[in-house]
Amino acid sequence: MRNRFKLIVLVTVVALVAAAGVQAAEYPRKPINVLIGFAPGGGSDVMLSMVRPLLERNLKTTLVPVYKPGAGSDIALTELAASKPDGYTTVISCTPQVPINAVVRETQYKLSDLLMAANVITDPGLLVVRAESPYKTMADFAKAAKEQPGKLSVGVSSAPGDDWFAAHMFQEAAKVQLNIVAFSGDGPSWQAALAGHTEGSFNNLSIVYSQVKAGKLRPLALMADKRTPFLPDVPTFKELGYDFTSGSSRGFSFPKDTPKAIVTTFADAVKQVMDSAEFKSNAEKTAFPSDYQNPEEYAARSRSRCGGGRACERPRSGSLGSSCWRALSMKRWRGGCPGGTFITPGPVSFPSWSEPS
After folding, report:
1. Residue 10: in which H helix or E strand, if any?
2. How far apart are CA 228 and CA 96, in angstroms?
3. What is the 3-state secondary structure (H, E, C) of 180-226?
4. Which one is the CATH code of 125-246: 1.20.1740.10, 3.40.190.10, 3.40.190.150, 3.20.20.70?
5. pLDDT in tens, 47-59
6. Which residues pair with 125 in a beta bridge?
7. pTM for the whole structure
């Protein structure tokens, strides 16, 4: 009787494994929904538009953008977590936005509900103003901010995202106070600056590059360790004495329990796209800083961007992170990621992502 039971279990396991293999071999058989947690015109849009035509060709299916803006992408991430793990629903996941959301406030999903599949871009931050702005340089902008505390309005994509932290880090480094306005995405943020509704926008290079090249937006400074060849005349904040960097990584994630073979198929298709001459040519023309990472690399890099899973202490008074700390405290939030460093009021265990199984 016992041997018969073991045989039944073995046959069942083999059947399930075989079924999963067939499912993966046939993937994809229908369109794939791509959840986007921000308004159109932002970084997620730019990323998808870069890979979508070639990725559809490689996968022989259609990628369907599904916009779910709001709550710093929480709405889209919550829907992803509740989706069937069959490979037909993915989300454009942004770091540090995604991990921070699940730490600083209550969410209906956990980081373990996400299975990171492929990173596509690591995009440095950029402060821009409209072409007609009286602020020709970063020095002009900083001087005006000092002379008018709390008056200069700047747009950011959401709170607490990389743009939001960058604005707070600039305040701390420059000893100024800005009027920081959170929008539903990078697109509305730069559009508000272009229309003159705000004085500037803390944004990302690939998102505003076309407007900069068209002469509609003026870049003041880049939030990177060194200048970018795409805008070689634009100084970095570090060059100007503001010791911080900021940026955002964007890629694709699936619901946990999505079969590893399906995730691998999708990730390999993304890599094929990004290795192609056509993609590289388009990336060069549009200042798209591509940065492919496979599922394991993407999850590991995202952890390292937010403290590597280590618990950190409250930043010392007057340090670069203390401005972000104060802002978080006022919102009754518990942590943040200024400059890629995770900070909390006390030791906290950083939650982890799911691993492909």
Report:
1. helix 2-26
2. 21
3. EEECCCHHHHHHHHHCCCCCEEEEEHHHHHHHHHCCCEEEEEEECCC
4. 3.40.190.10
5. 999 999 999 999 9
6. 204, 223
7. 0.75
